[in-house]
Amino acid sequence: MKTSQQDPHDKASSIASVTDDAEASLQIAASNPNPVTETINRATSHISGPDAFEPAATIEAPKGEEPYREAGDEIFDKVSRGRKIAIVAVLSFGAFLSPISSTSVLAATPEVATTYNTSGSIINVSNAAYMIVMALSPLFWGPMSQMYGRRIVALSSSVMFFVLSLATALAPNLASFIVFRAASAFGGTAFILIGPACIGCKVFIEWLLFQQDQRGAAMGWFLTGTLVGPAFGPFLGGIIVTFSSWRSIFWLQTALAAAGFLGVYFVVSETAHHLKIDDLKTLSGKKRALTILSMISPMRVLRLFQYPNIALVAGGSASLTWNMYSLLTPIRYVLNPRFNLESPLFSGLFYLAPGFGYLAGTFVGGHWADYTVKRWIKKRGVRVPEDRLRSTMPFVGIIIPGSMLVYGWTVDQEAGGIPVPVIAMFVQGVAQLFCFPSYNTYCLDVMPGQGAEVAATNFFARYLVGCVASAVVLPAIEVLGIGWFSTISAAYLIVSALATMAAIRWGKCWRERMEAKLRNSRDK
């Protein structure tokens, strides 16, 4: 078994990290007469590593030899491969829950509106409230998971999701329904954030062999739950509301939340090798509390939007979420009248088209991203994170906008019958799985030391835009018609494709500026 040599860039980052810690200690010492007990003792390891902007180097063994391993990697051999796969399965199941809840009530919107004596548009406001809480929650869960660990965050969030799902099922009036439903999103979204952070961290690279040129496929499989959930949720809701009360949707959601908690409790172990809370044991009570507040502050996530490549990629990912929710939200109000459908079950069948598209895209989308990365490695001789974004261009710039136009105008002009919108929705589902893995994995590649926080920027942008889509889609379609609304959505996707092109073209330069800015701040 060979041991890899430390990459010079990693060595420089480690020195800079030590310099930071020394400066932090001096500052604390200057403000406190007892510096010995007030020093932050940051325990670094080959797994936790320093926060760095450059991607970790991929070191491959010479042909015919065993892969290189770093000293200390034997810690991961203590867990069986079956247990490792089970952990990923539980996290994927947890990531499925909040997205499916975001749309499961769509097929039952008229029934919920009747119960509370209101309109479908008002019920869709509850969906928008749910989405905005989904957008805000990563700002808290991301820093919390790095501070206290991913397992405790997963357990806490699943308990919260269980309690609030139960409260939603029992909601006696419209106000309590909206409040409990929106609050449940705060608990359910943590799994969506934890999964990509695990896939991107050194622990899971060792556990499941997700090397740099294989992360796209791994991310594609994980994201299946987050994307299939919104598509299959309305179908499941349609079945339930056809044969039972709409409240049964939330009783089922409560049971699934309980299953998620049990899965985490009995299967998932802590994947973070080092917790930031351990660095603060020597601080006094007040200073420790202030340091914790600064470390879990949502501003740690929001500040990352100052970097153009992260902001543009988050915007590209958000455009896909706009497409998803603007497509799924109005189906019962748009397609039922178009094809004279009366049963919620029949309209729920339309949601299967994008859902099966997401499933089909899972098998090929991530592999396409990895293939693109490998092709450019062979061309250049070096891996550049922006090359992964090239895999999205034909889909976000041409295929998805084109499918949206076909869907919108054939329904608007009553042309083509049922097969045309079904095929258009299926194609969009497949194409989105050629894009989401690349956007998410790029965020992990450019700042591997802050995986959870960078992933939080992506999900914050996605669900914030999804909130807007859920709130405005029905009023906009009533004013503009489905054809022109689809045209606006297609234009938005094309603009996001141009933004992605900018990240591909200038991303390396922006990353170098980020690193220089970080280095200068350390030198001050």
From TrEMBL:
Organism the protein comes from: Fusarium venenatum
Keyword Protease: no
Chain spans, region Disordered: 1-53
Spans through the membrane: 85-109, 121-141, 153-180, 186-209, 221-243, 249-268, 304-325, 345-368, 389-410, 416-439, 460-477, 483-504
UniProt keyword list: Glycoprotein, Membrane, Transmembrane, Transmembrane helix
Membrane topology: Multi-pass membrane protein
GO cellular component: plasma membrane
One Gene Ontology term of the molecular function aspect: transmembrane transporter activity
Pfam families according to UniProt: MFS_1
Name this polypeptide is given: Major facilitator superfamily (MFS) profile domain-containing protein
InterPro entries assigned: MFS, MFS_dom, MFS_trans_sf
Main location: membrane
Superkingdom to which the source organism belongs: Eukaryota
Polar residues biased stretches: 28-47
Domain Major facilitator superfamily (MFS) profile: 87-508
Keyword presence, Membrane: yes
